Amino acid sequence: QAKQNGGSQYCFYTEEMDQHITRKLQLENGLRKAVEQEGIDVYYQPQLDVFSGKIIGFEALARWHHPDLGFISPDEFIPLAEETKLIVPLGEKILFEACRQFRQWMDEGHDLERISVNLSAIQFMDPTIISTVESVLRQTEVAPEHLEIELTESIVQDSVQALPVMNRMKKMGIQLALDDFGTGFSSLSYLKDFPLDTLKVDRSFIQTIHENEKDRAVVDTVIQLADRLGLSVIAEGVETEAQLDYLRSRGCAEYQGYFFSKPLSKTEASALLTRSVAM
Ligand code: C2E
Ligand code: MG
Ligand code: MG
Ligand code: MG
């Protein structure tokens, strides 16, 4: 028997832990099934030209509706998929589906520059990644120049492993974007050492552009830095017209965010493309 006072606290704690573990197991089993049975959908967030307003491409984002637990955020299931290595087969399916959809839009006559796909560190370090990407591009008949791989600083940090893979992708003609730029902790030297094409300014800096002089300074500096290094820059998480106006005044060429559109199902994204042709 546990002691009276400390005891109840201890029990409360285990109950919470139990719930946590139960949910985790439930999600893990659900995830395994979802990966096998195509239960995870790909949504598409439009990326736009700041100056012309034209849709340039889309970022593919994974969506999972658990049969009992409902909508699960990628911020919860992607780390779990990484932990269980399910991210490798899942990531391959997402890459395939995104490229297949992109091919379809191009075949329908839509003039898009890119499809952006997020790769996690585990996928990126997997020895089969290059052959997987090659095979997906071949099967979907998407030109490598149209595929943009989004990497985070955590990948770039392990430069001994990451650099050769990035160089291989670059040689194939694939575009490489650094996601959530400014939120990681690695040194800036990788910006000159790695074959990057694009910096994605993290949404946290965009969100407070109009409240915070320091965030404006960060955004301005990232835009200038990209320019000096010959990289493209895209702002993430643009939610207001004022934010977009600010980016335009700073010469930031591309953006994505709820101001124009949240991530869309393939049906919604197709309808949006058809509408924008008609306009
Ligand atoms: P991310 O790659 O930085 O994706 C951008 C996230 O910001 C997405 O969240 C998107 O829905 C959200 N977002 C876009 N515009 C706005 C805006 O204006 N306001 C706000 N508040 N949010 C906005 P989501 O889809 O929940 O994904 C979260 C993260 O999960 C992604 O961040 C990415 O790191 C990861 N993720 C999502 N799908 C995949 C995937 O297929 N593979 C891998 N490896 N990771 C993925
Ligand atoms: Mg991303
Ligand atoms: Mg991001
Ligand atoms: Mg993110």
Automatic annotation (TrEMBL):
All copies of domain EAL, residue ranges: 24-277
Highest taxon above the source species: Bacteria
Protein's name in the database: EAL domain-containing protein
Residues represented out of the complete protein: 535 to 813 of 813
